[in-house]
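thread from #wetlab-drylab

HS: before we spend reagent money on co-crystallization trials with magnesium ion, can we at least see a predicted complex? here's what I'd submit
DV: go for it
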Amino acid sequence: MSSAFSATKIIQPRPLKSTSRSPDKAFFDPLKTSTASASASSSSSSSFLGSTHKLRLHFNSAAAHTRRRSTSVVAVSDVVKDKKLKSTSSLSNLLITKSEGLELYEDMVLGRSFEDMCAQMYYRGKMFGFVHLYNGQEAVSTGFIKLLNKEDCVVSTYRDHVHALSKGVPARSVMSELFGKATGCCRGQGGSMHMFSKQHNLLGGFAFIGEGIPVATGAAFTSKYRREVLKEADCDHVTLAFFGDGTCNNGQFFECLNMAALWKLPIVFVVENNLWAIGMSHLRATSDPQIWKKGPAFGMPGVHVDGMDVLKVRQVAKEAIARARRGEGPTLVECETYRFRGHSLADPDELRDPAEKACLRKRSHRCIEKIHD
Ligand SMILES: Cc1ncc(C[n+]2csc(CCOP(=O)(O)OP(=O)(O)O)c2C)c(N)n1
Ligand SMILES: [Mg+2]
């Protein structure tokens, strides 16, 4: 049995006191940044609960951390490490066929161009309500959802158009929904934040953060119940729950991690860590910003992956989905990504540093070039 988790460099979770040589620590070190920020800032008010000045310093170390990384899995918990599996090189795990590569590329381009059109329609005044775009995060949706079977379920957030497209909901049906037309996937009743398709097992976009996580946990419970209680032997359906970094500070996240681990549910919790929750930096809002570490705390693997590299995401997703399908329980995957537009189309996006935005855009282009090769 081969494993994406074991085939790549494994870094054990470190206690908070670990030295600055840890690459994870270089990225997520509020204390270190706080010190740097305090000395860089002459105003005492700017360091109150973390200033934007501080975030910029942090961001520089994040970029350096990304450049140093050469494997898909940046960190993985002991639960995964304990499995002694045959050594396969991480390079061979990243290999895909030409048709697979084209499928991934097509899905990401569809997501990006679909949403660029949404923005055009919105700014021309033809689309109403809140519209949250996914620009920049496509590798996560494609890397995970393209591995699913039709019966597998996806639960999304208000940033749900691209998840719907990856799951196979026709673009025409998603766009019609955005225009409130009867031909939309929810007959025009749901709109941007509530994409749903029974046929495609897309169990909804949810406007309240964290609201979809219990729904996804319930879907995973259903799958297990059907297999083990109703004796439907072929029911090996997996559920993917997508949500953001800011949502991981919400109680429903912890409650569901507990239940999923307790009952070994076939679910993958996919955190799309784009570093921001509207205008609040993840680093400023979270006591321990390494979200993947919360998996091992509940007895499930926690994995941290470059969410802007579709091949790396796919590698990690393959293992997590297979693990769930085998009945071995949930996995928490933290995908490090970035959104290229404001929180919603109504957001002027003035809070994030332009240098931060430019740098993360470059990082994503490098990944696209790799697929072309
Ligand atoms: C229960 C609840 N509280 C607050 C909000 C307001 N709200 C909307 S988006 C958001 C930030 C979410 O950030 P994150 O989870 O990182 O997702 P992202 O927007 O970055 O994809 C908040 C707090 C909400 N929608 N629901
Ligand atoms: Mg976020």
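DV: Residues 70 and 372 are 19 Å apart (CA to CA).
HS: ok that's useful, forwarding to the group
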